[in-house]
Amino acid sequence: MQMTRERRSNQAIRKNDLVQVVTGRETGKTGRVLTILSRKDRVLVEKVNMVKRHERPSAKNRQGGIVEKEASLHLSNVLLVCSKCNRPVRVRFKKTEEGEAQRVCVKCGETIEKKKA
After folding, report:
1. What is the Cα–Cα distance from 65 to 59, expressed in whole angstroms?
2. Number of independent structural domains in the chain
3. What count of Cα atoms within 13 Å lies in the side-chain half-sphere of residue 94?
4. Looking at residues 27-54, what average pLDDT do you find?
5. How many of the other CB atoms lie within 10 Å of CB of 91?
6. What is d(CA 45, CA 4) in angstroms, rounded to the nearest whole number?
């Protein structure tokens, strides 16, 4: 029996956030979040965890051949980089006067703003 998971509206890591890999082969590398695969709890980070794929010629890729692209990382293996602390931190959620949940840095208490694409 498969469990159905609903998408969490207030995730600690969102698209266009700057994150740092904290475990695994790519430890210490930083990059921007390209996409979040919320059903699998995975994230694609720019220029991190690069893999080579053999692709046949198609309309998108006329030449074909070996293509390098990002592979996903588990959400637990990355931490958000605080703009004030300039280091990877955990995130808490705090309610504002309007009732919205805001992300707050655990280390310095700074609110983390949404990045514009």
Report:
1. 13
2. 1
3. 13
4. 96
5. 18
6. 26
Which residues are CB-contacts of 44 (< 8 A; sequence separation ≥ 6)?
Answer: 33, 34, 35, 36, 37, 70, 71, 72, 73
pLDDT of 1 over the 80 cut: no
pLDDT, the chain, mean: 90
- Evaluate whether residue 13 is within a structural domain: no
- The pLDDT value recorded for residue 11 is 87
Q: How far apart are CA 67 and CA 81, in angstroms?
A: 29
Q: What pTM, to 2 d.p., does this model score? A: 0.83
Only one residue has tokens 């592979």, namely 71
Q: Tokens 């694409």 map to which residue? A: 117
CATH number for the domain including 40?
A: 2.30.30.30
